[in-house]
Each structure stands twice: as structure tokens, then as C-alpha cells.
Amino acid sequence: MSETESAAAAAPPSPTTAAATERKPRRLRGHKKGAVTCCVASSARPGVVASAGEDGCICWFDLRTNDVLLTIEAANKPISSICFKPGNEDFVYASAGNEIFSFDVRMGPQSKPLQTYNYNRDEINQIAVSSKGFLAAADDSGDVKIVNTIQKCLYKRLREAHTSICSSVQFIPWRPWTAITGGLDSKLSAWDFSKGRTLFSIDYGSPELQNGSSSGSAGQCFNPAFVHSIAVPEEGILGGLYKVCAVARGDGAVDVVDLEYELAPAKSKGPRAATSTMSSKRTELGDGSSNQSQVKRIHLDYTMGGHTAAVSCVAFSAFGEKGKFLVSGGNDASVKIWDWSRGFSSETNSNAELVLDIDVKKKVNWLCTTTTDSDNLIVCDTSKVVKVYNFP
């Protein structure tokens, strides 16, 4: 029996969630060969999605049609990550190997790189661009390079940000000098990148967190809690009530972390109460100012109908009330949609809830969401086809 099958057999059925549903997706064809590795949805142009793949191409799709709008042969090697320039989505950045390229999509299929950045010493796993023009690149050496794209120079080098592969990096929109990283050392770290210092770090591989997590006791104990992906929502989701990040873990769990709590000075947090992830899937931490516990982290695992293998990617929803849903994809060939904010609710016995479970047949590499005439979930898997699912 495979590891995934054994984990699935160990997982008890959840009475609050439906079985995985099979949905027939639309298929967007544009890539020539290999897997589609990543995608990003335009916020300025609803329904426009860019994807990149192992064929070294970047493809643009308009979900109102099935045809590819534009294909740029960006690199002669697989592209690992793409992102738009905030505020001007005519510009896109792509990483391939240890290099980063920028393109102006208005130049069409014959577009050549406007800039090439070659500061990373090892293969880049993810890139991100901030509203201030800083470009972050996380690589296999564990380093993160911060590039000033305005002055076109290396700004800061976060040396050995992680003791293993640094898999993910994101900027925090409401804190313009703060970045957050995750790695295969099972750590989530926040940085003041202007000074190159760590603001906080969570070690998901620590005995304290491993013992407090129910996922470690049934089928997932052989999968380390590597951090594979991080999602940070736009500022002001759900009326500005929550400033969080989501973490995709190698042990099949998804965590949602209250960033403002973690970034607050230690003296303002007060004594920490005992964690209670076993029963409520929430870590409740006292803030020292009242008798009520405040939920600062929620933990979504197989006992709630979650993943039975490593979670490869997470994203906050663009449809409906922005950020209300959290979408996760995994190596168990499933996509889960969670109503995560219920877990932060002050209502008694209010827990995060799995609202949709989609069997997508193949391992999920990346996903994003967008809205046009309908709400769309875009999935990149191990095939060369981009798949579009309607929600709900």
C-alpha cells in the first residue's frame, strides 16, 4: 500500500463534509509539452490568466474564450514561478533556473527580456514583487535575494534564510518592508528585509508543534511538515478584519496564521495558553488582556476532510467576498475549498469548514482563482493543459 493510500485508509470520514466530487473542467491549451508549473490571475483584467510551464513558455488566456491569447517563449528551460508587477500588469516576471526575466506583454509573442537578474546561486523556486518595486527570489540554497528593480541592483541578501531549500517567498502588502518565507527545514519566517533580520519564526518540525498536531499521529507521521507554499492575501480582505497568511505543509495540513499577532512585540502577547489543536483544530493563545482566549492559528488537516498527502499550494479566493475562502491543492490529486474565517470567528463552537472537495485526477502543482461571469478556479497539474473549474 502506498503512503497516500495508507493515510487515506487511516483517515476517519468527516460527518461535516461531502465526499470528493468529480467535476469536468474546461481545458485551456497553449503549452507545448511537459507540466504547467504555475499560474497567476490578473486583478486589473478580470478573467485573464497567465501560466508558465516546463516548456519555458508563458501563455495568456482569457476565460471568456478557450483560445490562448499570447505565447512568449521566455526561456530554454522550465519556468518555476511567474508574477505580475503590482500596479502595472503589462509587465510580468518569470524565473527559470537561477535567473529572473522581465517582459512587457504589449510587445507580443516576439517579446524579449527587458531585464535579466542573475543574483541567485542556485535554482529559484518562487519570486514575488512588492508595490515598492522590490523583487524577492527564494532558491534551493536556502537564500533569498532582494532586488531593487528600480535601481536594477541587488538590495539585500538574506543569507541562509533556511537551512534547507527555501521553497516560497511573499511580501506582506500592509507591511512594505516585511517579507515572509517558508522552506524544507519546516520553518516559516518573517523578515525585515531592509535590515536583513528575522522578526519571527515558526518551526513546524519542532516536537511541541508535532505533538500538538493530530495529523502527526495517523498516516502523516512519515511526511515532514515542510513548508511548500505560502499565500498572503490582499490588504483589507473580509472588511480588514484579518491579516493572515496560509501555509501549505508537507504533512498534509494547511495552517492559517495571524500575522499581526506573530509580528507584535513579545511583551504585548502575554502568557501563552496551552494549544488545543486536537479538538478544535485551533491554537488558542491568550493575549494577556482578557479572560477570553483569542484564536491566532487554525489547523486544517485530514480529520476535517483535508489532504492525505503533501499540500503543494494554497491561495485565497478572488471570488465572492474576497478572501472568504482558502483553496488548497495537493499531491493527493485533490483541491479543497475551505471557509477558513469561521475558525477565527468569536462565535462559540465556530470552526473552519471544508465546503468543497474536488477530485482533479492528477497531482496539483499550482492554482489561482478569478472571477468573470462565473467564479473560476484555475488548476495547474502534471499535464500541459490548464484546467478551469467553476465554483460553486
Task: Present the secondary structure layout.
Elements: H1 3-10, E1 21-22, E2 26-29, E3 36-41, E4 48-53, E5 57-62, E6 68-73, E7 79-85, E8 88-96, E9 99-104, E10 115-117, E11 124-129, E12 134-139, E13 144-148, E14 153-158, E15 166-172, E16 175-183, E17 187-192, E18 197-203, H2 207-211, E19 227-231, E20 244-249, E21 254-258, H3 259-263, H4 277-280, E22 282-285, E23 294-300, E24 311-316, E25 326-330, E26 334-339, E27 353-359, E28 364-371, E29 375-381, E30 385-391
Parallel strand pairs: 1-27
Antiparallel strand pairs: 2-30, 3-4, 4-5, 5-6, 7-8, 8-9, 9-10, 11-12, 12-13, 13-14, 15-16, 16-17, 17-18, 19-20, 20-21, 21-23, 22-23, 24-25, 25-26, 26-27, 28-29, 29-30
Organism: Urochloa decumbens
WD repeats: 304-348
Pfam family, one: WD40
The largest pleated sheet is described as: 5 strands, mixed
Q: What does the radius of gyration come to?
A: 20 Å
Coarse structural class: mainly beta
Instruction: Report the sheet-strand fraction.
Output: over 45%
Model regions low in confidence, pLDDT < 50 over at least 5 residues = 1-18, 215-220, 271-293
Give the helix level as a range of percent: under 10%
**N/C terminus separation:** 34 Å
Query: What is the molecular shape?
Result: globular
Helical segment count: 4
* Count of individual beta strands: 30
Biased composition (Low complexity): 1-20
Region (Disordered): 1-29, 270-292
WD repeats: 304-348
Pfam families: WD40
